[in-house]
Task: inverse folding
């Protein structure tokens, strides 16, 4: 089990983060490209079937308790009773996670973590407009993410290569970049530059060009103690991304989980000011370093009937959403601001509610730029992809971007042999990514982790679901080829 070491780092400046002209980037990227060839050979030469954990127990009954699963639409890994998997090596959010008792998906699997002092973060002098200002790739052959309302992207060339030509198209990120998209991953700091698990860094920097903090930018880390901000773990992710020419999306400012007990215990009259202060401090700290923020996360109930009964909704009503977006815009005017949710990928009551929420925000002039669709999918009951396409197009028609924010595709329930499960997973990864690849306004697709060795799914559903593109030994599973094909339009 990983515990965030809260390493102190001073190399956190993201100068030229948004210009794509970071002096060292070309070197890093060329180095990565050279390495990528070697690694790919090694990785794809391995047998996924041999390497994957094939003796795991079948999926637990919790999967069936999710309303989203029952609806046969998009799965939500939100069992009524969270699975505690003592064998999991995935790091839990090391947060004192006092959940709203009203949340149907509340989990009690988070543990306390030691606090750590804020060691300071990157300077704010690299602030630059990360939205809608990059015209450097105008005229490119592919979708021009920058000029059509997508957040400004480092590395877009749209000409079959990344801007410095360094990401091979037989990598997931390189393939994504051929048409101006990005391939992201949620990461844990303990695995970045890990000496004991160097393949994590190798695979990450080879196949991905966008990072999301799995929990290090949530309240439980950033303000575990009232008034004491801790940006060090997030800084570590930002610094790593800078060194490797990767984008970073902030995740997440306003959620019903990963909240320290002091937040859920706040007096009603304090909640608004505390929320404002958190957003100002956290967004302000990384101003100019993150191209986007998941501002509000999972605010709609699973049945789509209304707002989740979070501490925010209880005390501020639905107005907490508009308030949060406005606060985020004020703190970093250049950041692309996103509403993120699960179970809203296809057409159903929840996605209808998400659609009406973001439509109304947009019409009211609230600064919202995009919608994140999580794509935690049960491979045995995936969302109807034709409906996903329709949903994407109606969101895009509002003038918003979309991104696939937390993809993992569980295959324990898929019938057949291990090879058949993985083949089905390849098809699903391909077909999901193809929906993004076909839409210039789909900024990126991110997996929630990279390897089956470290996945939150183990904690949610138990081991054996094999949800991510790389197996427990970091060998590329068939899904990797599926993703690459999809980005390349194959
Ligand atoms: C999860 C992390 O993966 C866990 O480590 C943590 O304990 C809880 O949160 N939707 C989200 C993510 O938006 O923030 C969640 O991440 C997964 C579901």
Result:
């Amino acid at each position: 089990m990983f515990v965030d070491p809260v390493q102190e780092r001073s190399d956190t400046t993201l100068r030229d983060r948004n210009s794509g002209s970071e002096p060292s980037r070309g070197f890093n990227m060329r180095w990565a490209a050279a390495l990528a060839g070697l690694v790919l050979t090694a990785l794809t030469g391995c047998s996924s079937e041999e390497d994957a954990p094939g003796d795991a127990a079948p999926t637990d009954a919790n999967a069936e308790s999710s309303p989203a699963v029952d609806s046969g639409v998009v799965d939500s890994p939100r069992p009524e009773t969270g699975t505690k998997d003592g064998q999991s090596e995935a790091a839990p959010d090391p947060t004192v996670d006092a959940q709203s008792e009203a949340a149907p998906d509340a989990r009690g699997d988070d543990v306390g973590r030691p606090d750590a002092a804020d060691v300071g973060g990157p300077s704010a002098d690299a602030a630059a407009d990360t939205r809608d200002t990059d015209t450097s790739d105008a005229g490119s052959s592919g979708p021009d993410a920058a000029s059509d309302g997508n957040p400004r992207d480092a590395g877009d060339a749209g000409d079959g290569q990344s801007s410095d030509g360094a990401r091979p198209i037989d990598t997931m990120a390189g393939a994504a970049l051929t048409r101006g998209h990005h391939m992201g991953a949620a990461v844990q700091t303990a695995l970045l530059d890990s000496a004991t698990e160097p393949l994590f860094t190798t695979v990450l920097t080879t196949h991905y060009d966008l990072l999301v903090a799995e929990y290090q930018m949530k309240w439980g880390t950033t303000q575990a103690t009232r008034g004491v901000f801790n940006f060090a773990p997030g800084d570590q992710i930002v610094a790593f991304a800078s060194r490797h020419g990767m984008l970073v999306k902030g995740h997440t400012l306003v959620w019903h989980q990963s909240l320290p007990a002091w937040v859920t215990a706040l007096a009603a009259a304090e909640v608004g000011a505390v929320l404002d202060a958190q957003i100002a401090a956290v967004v302000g700290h990384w101003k100019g370093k993150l191209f986007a923020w998941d501002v509000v996360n999972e605010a709609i109930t699973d049945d789509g009937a209304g707002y989740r009964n979070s501490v925010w909704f209880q005390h501020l009503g639905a107005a907490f959403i508009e308030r949060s977006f406005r606060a985020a815009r004020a703190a970093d005017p250049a950041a692309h601001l996103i509403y993120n949710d699960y179970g809203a990928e296809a057409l159903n009551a929840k996605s209808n509610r998400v659609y009406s929420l973001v439509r109304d925000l947009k019409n009211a002039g609230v600064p919202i730029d995009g919608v994140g669709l999580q794509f935690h999918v049960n491979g045995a009951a995936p969302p109807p992809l034709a409906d996903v396409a329709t949903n994407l197009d109606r969101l895009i028609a509002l003038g918003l971007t979309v991104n696939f924010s937390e993809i993992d595709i569980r295959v324990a329930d898929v019938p057949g042999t291990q090879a058949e499960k993985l083949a089905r997973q390849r098809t699903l990864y391909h077909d999901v990514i193809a929906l993004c690849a076909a839409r210039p306004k789909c900024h990126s697709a991110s997996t929630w982790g990279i390897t089956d060795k470290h996945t939150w799914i183990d904690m949610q559903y138990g081991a054996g679901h094999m949800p991510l593109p790389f197996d427990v030994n970091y060998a590329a599973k068939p899904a990797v080829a599926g993703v690459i094909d999809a980005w390349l339009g194959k």
Q: What stands out?
A: The longest strand covers residues 401-410.
